[in-house]
Hints:
The chain is mostly helical. The protein has one domain (8-131). The chain is built from five helices and two strands, in the order αααβααβ. The model has no long low-confidence stretch (mean pLDDT 95).
Amino acid sequence: MRLWSLHPSILDRVGLVACWREGLLAQRVLAGGTKGYTRHPQLERFRTASDPLDAIGHYLGELALEATVRGYRFDLTRVLRTHAVPPGIPVTHGQLAYELAHLRAKVSERDAAWLARLPEVALAAPSFTVVDGGIESWERP
Length: 141
């Protein structure tokens, strides 16, 4: 499971679609609807939000917004909380830099044309607030 901290506009088509699918799985886990993935490290930051379902709902809503801009159709009826406010989940500069390098490596293999669209400095998704620090403790490099 990879729930990117990067802004959805940075993700290539495969990354955006996979993040949507995995975000829906994360929502199911956070809602108690599955036995698997309950201890997945990527979920730690959503669990620390004041309302985890609002947090993942906002995250999924932003993915869907980017999909709409690109002409894709993500089914918003699958999101439990579509009108959640930005949760302000902290993410470190180091984590964003790590994720951008990770995305760059993936994109160089699957969509070289998208590689040129990647920024030099990582932008955070709207659900996150950038703070100082290295790679997050939940990341498994």
